[in-house]
Write a sequence for this structure.
């Protein structure tokens, strides 16, 4: 049996809520309820991205999730002092540092650990001193792996968006090889290897060529399919497909 774990990103549950409600008591859909439905379907952790612009997940969502979940909370966030301070106060099990642009629809690529090694290192030390395990969301690039090690990260999450958006098999194969090499190097350096962005039921099994994967983080695809069959069944079916992965 595969030991590959699934982190379910629930940002877009809050996206739907924020389209109609803010803090009203009747606000729906309920983020905590949906997170628990994902857990009932087999989610091993819940991921939520607290963006600077608060376009979906709000501070109170993070507090509620941290206080009520029976699986680890993975907080995605930019390296911004306000949110770093909030994270240290809340103390989620995991934090994944990601880049942010105000006008992007979603995260467009990995954080540049090479260019921001010093600043990231300082933040990672603060978070680790607070007892939080830290991941960097990076492109599958060997220089980014080296800098992640230098920064003191516990984990990396390899950006799979370029693979997911590849237009043909040749482009997909090139991206898979990049992911393979990055994962091998990260594993050799003692980093836990996760992956995420754009993963769907259709492209999932192509990632099974990548060794040493510990966890996949999947959001939009699962929330979209849940509109048809419910989140619990959606997550359950996805986890069943993940069982084919063999961690080399």
């Amino acid at each position: 049996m595969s030991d590959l774990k699934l982190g379910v990103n629930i940002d877009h549950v809050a996206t739907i809520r924020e389209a109609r409600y803010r803090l009203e008591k009747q606000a729906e859909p309920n983020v905590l309820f949906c997170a628990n439905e994902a857990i009932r379907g087999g989610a091993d952790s819940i991921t939520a991205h607290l963006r600077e612009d608060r376009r979906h997940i709000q501070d109170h969502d993070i507090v509620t999730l941290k206080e009520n979940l029976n699986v680890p909370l993975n907080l995605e966030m930019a390296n911004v002092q306000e949110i770093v301070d909030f994270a240290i106060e809340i103390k989620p099990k995991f934090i994944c540092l990601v880049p942010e642009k105000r006008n992007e629809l979603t995260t467009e690529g990995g954080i540049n650990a090479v260019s921001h090694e010093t600043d990231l290192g300082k933040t990672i030390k603060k978070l680790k001193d607070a007892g939080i395990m830290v991941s960097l969301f990076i492109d599958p690039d060997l220089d980014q792996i080296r800098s992640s090690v230098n920064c003191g990260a516990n984990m990396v999450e390899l950006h799979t968006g370029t693979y997911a958006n590849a237009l043909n098999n040749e482009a997909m194969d090139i991206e898979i090889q990049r992911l393979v090499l990055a994962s091998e190097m990260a594993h050799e350096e003692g980093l836990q290897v996760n992956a995420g962005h754009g993963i769907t039921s259709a492209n999932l099994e192509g990632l099974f060529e990548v060794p040493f994967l510990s966890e996949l983080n999947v959001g939009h695809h699962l929330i979209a399919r849940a509109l048809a069959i419910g989140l619990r069944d959606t997550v359950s079916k996805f986890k069943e497909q993940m069982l084919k992965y063999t961690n080399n």
Observations:
- The chain has ten helices and eight strands.
